[in-house]
## 1
Amino acid sequence: MLRAGIVGLPNVGKSTLFNAITRTRKADAANYPFCTIDPNVGTVVVPDARLEPLRRIAKTSVVVPAAIEFVDIAGLVKGASAGEGLGNRFLTHVREVDAIVQVVRCFDDPDVHHVSGTVDPVRDIEVINTELVLADMETIAKRRERVAKAIKGGEKTAIAEDAVLAKLEEGLNAGRPALAIALTAGERALAKQFFLLTDKPTIFACNAREADLATADSNSYVTAVRAYVKTHLACEAVVISAQIESDLVDLSPEEGEAFLKELGVHESGIGALIRATYHLLGLQTYFTAGEKEVRAWTIRIGDTAPNAAGAIHSDFERGFIKAETVAYEDLVHCGSIAAAREKGLYRMEGKEYVVADGDVMLFKFNV
């Protein structure tokens, strides 16, 4: 299962957000730096409104949604790349995740300590990104030293690798994360082998006050974050209120809906954040639907039908013959598999078929 790491400065609401996302109280959330030391890990259900219509069509009571893992990582401080704070431990934990959710404080509260003394979300982003860039520059310097020996021996692959490392080094020296450095598809594939921290897909979570959630679009901190990450990092920023989300953990769905309505908010920011993180990881969903259950299966964008079959069991992929497929929208519009088949919307797909998000599938295989 792919993992998204929740990172940020100490005391910006990471652990509170983790508890809200995982609907647990697993992570300590206290008003002092380095409250979290060892990472907390939790499995998170991906909200998907398509499951309920499919459940009604399949006439089943069992629904199994898609899931991903979130990791609550200790707060990073200026100088982490040189060992400050939890330093290398933090960076190691970041290196182990597949994507980053960077939490940024977007509220003023004198009762909540800020490690820098004042609230400035763009400065906070730059502090964290600088530390990640510095760590990556060290990784690249060491890699280039090793590659140099192979280049002396005339290895062509080493020469190609060093050329990519040089491009990355130049970009990092200019303060750009590896993900924002222009590389060809082949160069990008080589860069993945270096496991750079700034090469991980990233999304920013603007943590706002409860009272500001309904009017977040006019929050000056949120506006500044959105403009900065779009211009400098080519990333997305979503707005959440970690404290509100934490309060919702203890409420029933009906009570939670009423609570959000009172605040002038239609949907929990957590749902949007989880879905955005799911897509950030390069994932999409296909479904199987029958009387036994309706289940959402997680695959990578671009996967073929045999790859999708393998998500269920390796035997399905190994012995793949064909996939009976119908688009979610077509199935819901028709109201049943039989009706979709009569209208020619239920089709057979072979090994080359690239699965679309929302496909409802039944696999034929022979082992």
## 2
Amino acid sequence: MARVVLKDVEKVYPGGMKAVQNFTLDIADEEFVVFVGPSGCGKSTTLRCVAGLEDITHGTIHIGDRLVNDVPPKDRDIAMVFQNYALYPHMSVFENMSFALKLRKTPRDVIEQKVRKAAKILGIEQLLDRKPKTLSGGQRQRVALGRAIVRDPKCFLFDEPLSNLDAKLRGEMRAEIKRLHMDLRSTTIYVTHDQEEAMTLGDRVVVMKDGVIQQCGAPLDVYHRPMNRFVAGFVGTPAMNFFEGTIARESDRLWFDEGSGKLAVPDWAKEALGPKVGSKVVMGVRPQAISDRPIGAADLKDNVLPMKVGVVEPLGDKMDVYLSTPSHGRIVAHIDAHRGLSPNETRPMHIDLNRLHFFEVGSDGLKLATAPAAA
């Protein structure tokens, strides 16, 4: 396996469209890194640049100690697993898995050994004589994984490999890929738009938007300490709620004025928000930090906003409750499903002041303060 280093990588298409901008990342040997972001953010383009399927406009890419800018894909010693499996329909599973080894003129006994070993790891030994059209989606994905494994590459590249599978099978294959990485200790770059995959698979998560890295870090660090409002809103299910309001000072205390109610500014945020008195800021609250019952030790009047109940979605032992205030029309709380909340009633909803985030105004507003307890 090998370290992969991208430095100042840019990809500009004809017409001036910048798909990737100033992308710099050092991926350690044996590390599992996930590129995540919405459609069109540049994550798959970046992966294809590493694979050599796209030429970069500027910057450098090293795989191991080798500069690969001008090295063709077949000579980069990488293995790529695609979204659509890319299996040869006229070949058996064995032939699909062994094809790259045959092109390398690998001895027949070595091919046999490697293919059968990979098939055993993936639990597809009984499928080696079958054609892809007779396999289920999960089986085809295992074959695609096996074809990559037998090559013993320096780096594995995954381009949204689970997006064609149903929810149950995605969960199973996600666990399978994680287990394979733990067994093989392979350097892996994985692209997905599914934040759940990113959070569960990656040693590090790279959140992208418009071809630019927004934040890179351990999954829980990105979740608990988002660097800007975009990351905060993208990572987490259900998505974080945002309230735009004004910082006010009354009776020597700081308050966040939401427009239809006020919340006390907690002690940990006072230093950052003190200079913002009279100015607009954005408060972020995860759905799990909103409840119809008292939270923490705060006075009831300090952490309560009256909210009107809209749609209630049962999810087993939890439910998502869609709420609103006169100033904010869409708020989601993720609470105990056994609570009796009825549509159109107004309830005092309690907000955990020790799990708040504050950002500058704007869709990409930078972080102003994050609760120490959030981590």
